[in-house]
Structure formats: C-alpha cells, structure tokens
Design brief:
About 0% of the residues lie in helices and about 50% in strands. The chain has no helices and ten strands. The N and C termini lie far apart (about 35 Å).
Length: about 110
Amino acid sequence: VQFVESGGGLVQPGGSLRLSCAASGFTFSAFAMTWYRQAPGKGRNWVAFISSSAGSTNYADSVKGRFTISRDNTKNMVYLQMNSLKPEDTAVYYCNRPSVLDSWGQGTQVTVSS
C-alpha cells in the first residue's frame, strides 16, 4: 500500500490550493479515504472524509465551508480543494484509509503566509 501526496506549496492568506493523493496497493474503490494534517509541534488530525463511493463526505469544523474532498475511483486518486486558506491551515497534509491507517506517505507541505 502506498500513498503519494502532492500539490502543496506556499500561498497567501485567502488563497487556494488543490492537493492530490495517488493511492496504490489495494482496491481503492472499496475504501473510504481521509485527509489528515499535522501542524508544526502538534499531532496529526483528520481534516476531511469521503466514503468509498463518494456519496458521503464530512469535514472538521475548522475547514467546513472552505475545503472540499473528492475522489476519482477510475484513477485511484483523492483530492482536497482548499479555498480561503488561513495561516492556521499551515501543516503537512496526508491521505490514508481511516479504517486501516496504513503506513503514511511523505505528505505535502502547505504553508499559508503573507
């Protein structure tokens, strides 16, 4: 099982980024997926959840209304569209299967700063 996250970068407050996660090594369409993030000096927390069929999504209160999770089961990809970014969104972002919690990928760094 492998996850490869990409799309992070440096963005000004109020800006947008779209993160991507390429998953492999399992039947992607059978599993829900979750984006997590870990800010400097803090633990890893979930950010957004999507069910296996994309019929259900859920968001942490801190990102609700600003972030959108989606997936493409034909490409084994999960995405996180992040709008209206705030400095407190600065973190390394990871994807994983919430029901299994496989080994973590390298993550992608998001820095929100002016």
